Amino acid sequence: MSGRSLQGPQSLQGPRALARLTALSSVLALAAFLAGCAPQEAQPVFHAERNPATLAEWRLLQIRAGVLGPTDGVIPYELNTPLFSDYAHKLRTVWLPAGTRAGYGADGALQLPVGSILSKTFYYPRRDAGNAAGASQGALRATAEAIGVLAGGRLVLDQVQLIETRLLVQRAQGWQAVSYVWDDSQRTARLQRVGEIIPLELAGIGKFDYVVPDINQCAACHATDVKRATLAPIGLNFRHLDREHDYGGEVGQKNQLAHLEQLGLLDVAARAESASSGGSRAALWGDESASLEARARAYLDINCGHCHNRQGPADTSGLALDAAETAPIALGVCKSPVAAGRGTGNKKFDLVPGRPDESIMVYRLAAHDPGEMMPELGRSLVHREGLELIRRWIAEWPGAPGCAQEASNSARQSASSARLSRSQG
Ligand code: HEC
Ligand code: HEC
Q1: Which ligand number lies closest to the CA of residue 236?
Q2: Of 14, 22, 34, 385, most Cβ neighbours within 10 A?
Q3: Which domain covers residue 67, as residue numbers?
């Protein structure tokens, strides 16, 4: 165990602690009463052992006057470039227990104390959003536009369709995954363990099966280090978080890291250090003002890098697509796939400079078949715009197109090493 010495709620045990807690809560209640605010103001509850049957019991999100939003002290955040999940939009929040603070790990990942809770709510804008018709079950929209979202991570419920809310909870034994699926009334999200298929329809795309992962599948992506096999957050990293967010109210538009620092939730001193070691801010994949290279790498980093890194679940493929990778061969340039046949589309290399149609990477991004598609989990649809970005990146690769040189080099190399071993043997 990591030997954290934080005062998580689970350390408040025994009669003395209980008395302290009771005394403290009556002082708080009195203070709240004197300050004139409602004492029943929702506050998150850290469930140290069991997962409650409904999302509401965590008190991370609340519905008021038709608007779903974070409760007191729960901070919404966005990523520079997010994971593609069948065009779903996501409301992400972070909560740290009172009096605690996050630091940075060596790779720029935020290190959160026991008791922290991360949430991600998947939803789609409704096709009829804005019309009085309201809660019809018609087609949803596949658009990047922020529809039905108010400042401060609040969602107008008659403009969006809520699908599921996933949690990562930092317990004494490490990060644990929990998942809740919203009912049609959009009032209640219930605990689910075995996964679920939700038939949806997106305007302009058609009908598809949205797959809520089985709770065991969370690890396929979140156990980013196969040897340790423990779950970890993926997006909570300096390079993904370093951007502006509209918090609304008095705070307004502000840099997310600066906001967390100002709230005392993030170690200020560690930021500069992390910025120098953990690499720079990730580009926004759709930002035409950023370089094609930066956009493509940010896209591959968040969509593929959690499996395709040198410690990750796809390490045996030899393909590493995380932001830190620099070796062309590891990025797939003129690299032969580990397994021939299915999943290669009869192409020879993962990435052929200047030739997207000859690149296995493009083939697998465009694939639908569960045995061929990449990522291998987490989508039913092809991300047309993401595919287009990677195609362009490969098409506009600097230098001479093709892999002929490398291919004959490696053929010569293996021929000469075969000769070498024969002459030695
Ligand atoms: C296909 C891979 C994949 C699967 C499967 C997956 N996740 Fe994630 N998850 C990601 C990625 C990548 C991010 C960060 C990018 C983003 O949020 O868009 C993320 C983000 C999250 C976050 C926000 C905090 C963070 O890690 O950045 C939560 C909470 C979360 N996932 C929970 C779950 C749970 C619970 C499950 C299983 C029910 C699950 N995830 C399954 C890839 C996956
Ligand atoms: C959930 C984990 C996971 C994610 C996410 C993932 N992959 Fe993979 N990938 C694998 C595994 C495991 C293999 C090896 C088995 C195989 O080829 O199917 C692999 C193999 C590959 C290969 C063949 C590599 C070789 O040289 O053998 C390519 C190309 C590829 N992935 C591309 C991608 C791209 C592009 C993304 C992101 C858009 C991605 N993958 C996301 C798990 C993943």
Answers
A1: 1
A2: 385
A3: 42-277
* Predicted confidence pLDDT, tens digits, the chain (425 residues): 333 332 333 333 334 444 444 444 554 444 544 444 444 567 999 999 999 999 999 999 999 999 999 999 999 999 999 999 999 999 999 999 999 999 988 788 999 999 999 999 999 999 876 554 444 456 888 888 888 999 999 999 999 999 999 999 999 999 999 999 999 999 999 999 999 999 999 998 999 999 999 999 999 999 988 888 899 999 999 999 999 999 999 999 999 999 999 999 998 877 766 655 556 899 999 999 999 999 999 999 999 999 999 999 999 999 999 999 999 999 999 999 998 778 899 999 999 999 999 999 999 999 998 889 999 888 999 999 999 999 999 999 999 999 975 554 454 444 433 333 333 33
* Core vs surface per residue 87-126: b (16+ CB within 10 A) or e: bbbbbbbbbbbeebbbebeebbbbbbbbbbbbbbbbbbbb
Mutate to test the pocket of ligand 1, among 112, 178, 191, 222 (most ligand atoms within 8 A of CB): 222
Could you tell me the distance, in angstroms and rounded to a whole number, from the CA of residue 340 to the centre of ligand 2? 13
Please indicate, yes or no, if residue 117 is contained in any of the structural domains: yes
Pair (125, 264) in one structural domain: yes
Kindly state whether residues 223 and 84 are assigned to the same domain: yes
Nearest ligand 2 atom to alpha carbon 371: 18
Looking at the fold, whether 35 and 175 belong to one and the same domain comes out as: no
**Residue 239 sits in the same domain as residue 318:** no
214 lies in the same domain as 304:
no
Q: 374: CA distance to ligand 2 center in Å?
A: 6
Final residue belonging to a domain, choices 214, 243, 277: 277
Q: In whole angstroms, what is the distance from residue 253 CA to residue 151 CA?
A: 9
CA distance linking residue 411 with residue 72, whole number of Å: 63
Task: Give dist(CA 27, CA 201) in Å, integer.
Answer: 51
